[in-house]
Design brief:
By secondary structure, the protein is mainly β. It is built from no helices and eleven strands.
């Protein structure tokens, strides 16, 4: 059964860094685009980044571009989100998801994604 397990969340001060991991099991991550999403209390889930299965090219939302870096290690069946210069407004539950569709460009629309992890909480506070 396909599963995604996120880890790496926690409590961090503003300006700090965290690296989130997303380990896939039950499917071969190399064939899938991977997206990272977040949801703060009372807000809709938003897309923050995705990475292509074809060539590893990333896309970022304006809110995280220049601070976050998405990557993947297909040999480990794992994707990552390196988060730097964290701000209090980055506080949210973070989710990874995967989709297998054609095309070299990963989709930013969360509706495309099939397999979702359970989420990991990131809290940025002084």
């Amino acid at each position: 059964q396909p599963q995604f397990v996120e880890s790496g969340g926690g409590l961090v001060q503003p300006g700090g860094s965290l690296r989130l991991s997303c380990a896939a099991s039950g499917f071969t991550l190399a064939y899938y685009h991977v997206g990272w999403f977040r949801q703060a209390p009372g807000k809709e889930r938003e897309t923050i980044s995705c990475i292509s299965s074809a060539d590893g090219s990333p896309l970022y939302s304006d809110s995280v571009r220049g601070r976050f870096n998405i990557s993947r290690d297909n040999a480990k069946n794992t994707a990552y989100l390196q988060m730097n210069s964290l701000k209090p407004e980055d506080t949210a539950a973070y989710y990874c998801a995967a989709v297998r569709v054609g095309g070299s460009r990963c989709p930013l629309e969360k509706g495309w994604y099939d397999y979702w992890g359970q989420g990991t909480q990131v809290t940025v506070t002084p």
